[in-house]
Amino acid sequence: MEDIGNLFHGFAVVVQPYNLVLMVVGIVLGVIVGVLPGLGGANGVAILLPLTFSMSPTSAIIMLSCIYWGALFGGAITSILFNIPGEPWSVATTFDGYPMAQQGKAGEALTAAFTSSFVGALFAVIMITLVAPLVASFALRFGPPEIFSVYFLAFCSFVGLSKEPPFKTVASMMLGFALGAVGLDQMTGQLRLTFGFETLLTGFDFLIAVIGLFGIGEILLTMEEGLSFRGKAAKINLKVVIQTWKELPRYWMLYLRSCVIGCWMGISPAGATPASFMSYGIAKRISKRGFNFGKGEIEGVIAPETAAHAAGTAALLPMISLGVPGSPTAAVLLGGLLIWGLQPGPLLFTEQKDFVWGLIASMYMGNIVGLIVVLTCVPLFAAILRIPFSVIAPIILVLCAIGAYTVHNNTFDVVMMLVFGVVGYFMKKTNYPLAPMVLAIVLGDKAEESFRQSLLASQGGLSVFFSNALVSTIMTLGLIALFWPMIQSGLGRLRAGKKGVRVAE
Amino acid sequence: MSNDINETGGAGPSHRGVEIGVAVAIAGLAVIGIIGATRVGTGWSAEGPRAGFFPFYICVAILISCAVNLTQVLRTESDGAVFASWSQINKVLQVVIPTAVYVSIIPYSGIYVASALLIAGFMKILGRYGWSASIGVGLLVPLFTFVAFEKWFLVPLPKGPLENLLGY
Amino acid sequence: MSAPIKILTFGVAACVGGAFALAAAPAKAWEPTHPIEIIVPAGTGGGADQMARTMQGIITKHNLSKQSVVVINKSGGAGGEGFLDVKNSKGNAHKLIITLSNLFTTPLATGIPFNWKDITPVAMMALDEFVLWTNAEKPYKSVKDYVAAIKAAPDNTFKMGGTGSKQEDQIITVALEKATGKKLTYIPYKGGGEVAVQLVGNHIDSSVNNPIEAVAHWRAGKLRALCVFDAKKLAYPDKVTPDQSWADIPTCKSEGLDVEYVMLRGFFMPPGVSKDEVAYYVDMFKKVRETPEWKKLMSDGAFNTTFMVGDEYTKWVTDAEKLHQGLMKDAGFLAKTN
After folding, report:
1. Nearest Cα to C329, choosing from C179, C117, C171?
2. Where are the domains of chain B?
């Protein structure tokens, strides 16, 4: 196959020492921006972009895409160590990653997260290599109803998961939707729920809510229990990596499923966030250890991380072939392509072979280099937990404030962050689950938008959500996921009836 | 986490009272949401739902679930469980109050000065560290963030009189 | 107010002349002392964002400023977030905002307390064009075919996709409705790139994408350019597709569809900045316009490269505001006072 030849040519370009150095620089920088709240891959890429104009486009894209990988890896670190997800798709990683860190298993959690990211990304790159043209045409089939059905599936596979009282879950999730609705209504261009306050114009950004609810709320809870981090005894040598690795192959089925979910979400324009939630939700339903999810289960780290990274990687394909960026970082990368005179679009694959295959080769290499870099740093990251609480707590508070501020460069958001923190403390103490609320803030307005776009197109007919095979399938999957507990108990009863044994639910 | 109901004892506000308070507060937000939604139209026009349609029904759903939660709390007898003991609440306030002061002075002092004060104060008073350690960390962290954000990543953070004096 | 030409010559003399001019001039020409922020009142990846980031690259690469340039997206509230930020940064000479039509449409549609007169005009960098696109698989070879098809079908049969609600794309759509006498279903999306992809995927029937948003799909033969909403044809005669150049696209008016619209891509500064400070940026922009990278961006996006500063620019913006007020009022897009 000609493509494979191109790929090897790409590898030859990528492994030049100069490019390898750029790669390491990119990864390290990416990890740094991924860890510091308020900075994302977009910042790293934007800052370095001007520096890359003197390089060849291929070298430049190698370095920039490595920032992207680094930032993806780095996002998991704060989620696991401090319960503060820096990106929407790291939220699901906190559910089990943070409890693991508290139990002194930060090293395991980080290793699992990094390795899963790598596996997800690698799977997606292989898919891109093999079926790139097919994938691009698949993405084109997603109109508003299809996109809505994907969000619907994400919600359905996630709700009903918590052990908290159902009406508290509903209240929490609906509150998330309501908060997400504040600001400009995309569909009518009207402001809503702002009550004339200029500061509410931008709505409640997910990041501010999450930093408050998860990050600050957690500090308050820790404070209440006395000045100590429970996970002090973090192991700090590299053995933990090897030990965790020995365990991981057992979860090959989980990996495969998460990769598929991730790739599929990445190609559809929905992206990494629904992928991570969906993967977590489905893993929890299917896993034998589902009862332990949320309490520090390694599968609960593997599932969202694998899916998020498979999606994040697969999403680069629609970006280069259709010119639609899936994330702010991708958008800045896209801007870079334009400046180098490369026009993202269907023709890039035929007109700029060197560049495209160089990029794909750098995806392979970048992820390998990235994995090595972050894994060697695992002990270092885990050691952060050894810093006494009275030192690390104010530093986390400061970093949270910076993170909240940079979302809109607005000091009012820092105040909101603290309000969310106190709210999070009360909600957690009174058994209101926070995860559904965050999911609703993250995806609520997008789901509403695609729902209303669909209805506009269909002139108000709801049948549009079952109008073709693709959308019907996804909607049906969503309904199955929603009623899964009932279906499961029904199946259980059927089986029990046959055997004559009553299965305990 | 199993410490929802505090077993360590000690007097404090009742868990029941706080439950009621949280439910009422959420219901209050829902009422505000309903008022806001009615202002932009809650109907279903020819082109599908209007701007206030979803917020309206979402807030109605919140109200209903709050009502259910509230009746559940009210129906159960108070078991005397406390939400948290006063000493625990005291500890929580030890973080909330300095942080509240911190976020409220950021617009005036800039984030770096405020952060230095927060870190040093927190370490000195709550962590009982010596002056040198407290001030050392208190200065180093803002200095590092300054270099990282303003110099490397060119992300401007709020600055106050001190930074102006130094020419920023 | 001195004439724009004077401001320009002053800026050029002070900056290009360098140290010699400075030695002669009684007052030192203004120069930025810390990083310059460019606010983009739109999301990442859109036309304004691309232009701002390209300029960031150009300024850095050609060393046009001693200070670095930072691009900040403030897209909340249809850009209202960005406009209010600039309005509230009185006297800050290190802040610029790149505008699009939401300079006029956002305050009118949302009622936020902002008017372009609250900020200081600097320069018009270009005018962005709008082209009527359809999917190449569809049988409409020309505007006439398409309009005939719209007229033949019942109201709301044809779906028009566009960026945002009650903004430029929807204004053009309303104008099309007037011209054809039929209602179109307008579906708002977040960004122009997304609209183009939806059109390629046949989820909508047409779009009024800016050239740069749709050019990649046009070149790949997925889209057909029916007409351009400007008084004259585009000025780029090089072939873009195998058989067409930008200049080959007829104007909508010449095809019997009397709709014209162009969009401002210009810069403003916060209120209360001095003439020297404005002059510095005007001069910098003039240098930006001379670079090959800028010229490439202009030809890739088939921009109308009109450059305006000073009174001329202010007058253009004043006229554009009046135009938008009329258009928005006719379309029923004005915010209800609440």
Report:
1. C171
2. 15-75, 86-165
* Rounded-to-integer distance, Cα A374 and Cα A395, Å: 23
Return the domain boundaries, chain A. Answer: 2-467
Return the domain boundaries, chain C.
4-128+263-331, 131-255
Report the residue from A50, A186, A344 with minimal CB separation from C165: A186
- C4-128+263-331 and C131-255 share one fold: yes
Helix (H, G, I), strand (E, B) or coil at B131: helix
ipTM of the complex: 0.90
The candidate with the shortest Cα–Cα distance to B48, out of A345, A111, A449, A270, is A449
8 A C-beta contact, residue A364 and residue A12: no
Each residue of A207-218: b (16+ CB within 10 Å) or e?
bbbbbbbbbbbb
DSSP notation for A166-177: HHHHHHHHHHHH
Q: Which fold has domain C131-255?
A: D-Maltodextrin-Binding Protein; domain 2 (3.40.190)
CATH class of C4-128+263-331: alpha beta
Residue of A nearest to B60 (CA): A174
Query: Checking phi first, is residue C262 left (phi over 0); if not, alpha (psi -120 to 50) or beta?
Result: beta
C224, C140 contact by CB (below 8 A): yes
Residues 6+ apart with CB under 8 A from A189: C78, C109, C110, C164, C165, C166, C167, C188, C333
Say which of A192, A405, A452 has its CB closest to residue B157: A405
Residue A471 at interface with chain C, using a CB cutoff of 8 Å: no
Residue B154 has its nearest CB partner, among C33, C68, C185, at C68
CB atoms closer than 10 angstroms to residue A9:
15
Q: Which two tokens stand for residue A317?
A: 């394909």
Q: Are strands C36-40 and C95-99 parallel, antiparallel or unpaired?
A: parallel
Interface touch A429/B18, C-beta < 8 Å: yes
Average pLDDT for residues A134-163, to the nearest whole number? 83
Sort strands C95-99 and C69-73 into parallel, antiparallel or unpaired.
Answer: unpaired
Share of chain B above pLDDT 90, in %: 51
Cβ-contact C43, C191 below 8 angstroms: yes
Residue C220 has φ and ψ, to the nearest 5°, of -80, 0
Q: How sure is the predictor about C336, in pLDDT bands with cuts at 50, 70 and 90?
A: low
Query: What's residue A130's pLDDT?
Result: 84
Contact B18 A178 (CB under 8 A): no
Residue of C nearest to B47 (CA): C185
Side-chain half-sphere CA neighbours of C322 within 13 A: 5
Angle (CA) C244 C249 C252, round 5°:
165
Answer whether residue A333 shows pLDDT above 90.
Answer: no
Q: How many residues does chain C have?
A: 338
Low-confidence ranges of chain B (pLDDT < 70): 1-9, 46-48, 168
